[in-house]
# Entry
Amino acid sequence: MPFEVPPLPYDYAALEPYIDEQTMHLHHDKHHQAYVDKANAALEGTEYHDSSVEHVLTMLDELPDDKRTVVRNNAGGHANHSLFWEIMSPDGGGEPEGALAEAIDDVFGSLDELKKAVNDGGVNRFGSGWTWLVHDGTGLAVYSTPNQDSPIMQSDEPLLGIDVWEHAYYLKYQNRRPDYLEAWWNVVNWPAVAERYARATTKEHAAAG
Ligand code: MN
# Structure
């Protein structure tokens, strides 16, 4: 089945005042849809037309030269945005619990230090891109990527990603990317991030065993 934009799991206005309704409409209905349409058009007629987006992103080297960049950008955009809607919630914010909270304390020292590392990644990303918390097969790591590059392309498991393209924040925050990043943590869906962490660590143990 070709890629599809998943329905937003909450109302467009539900993340107000941190993310405005108009941005959510444009971002979900227009930008994400465009990534899906372009990825589907590029993959049509290839052996990957039915593949999962995760599979496609690990097989970019196998694609013909004239398709590789368009698939990288647009299948990447599809994967990144599908994750983004899922890891935000109108009931978001607060602190993570359980194994994820312990791992964050172990690796970063505290939740505040993690937020600082993720925000710094977003502020320092020149141009457009994403800042990530990932599981890299051995544990937690933070980095940023340009454009729509996904951690999946390097076989890392994205747990949390913040979109720092201007389309994600410009209507409300204009040039104030640091303010958007600061505010974003009020909508983070920690239970969804923890679920992704649990799946990633299960894979890690399976691989080690
Ligand atoms: Mn975006």
Summary: The chain has a mean pLDDT of 96. The pocket of manganese (II) ion is lined by residues 27, 31, 81, 163, 165, 167-168 (CB under 6 Å).
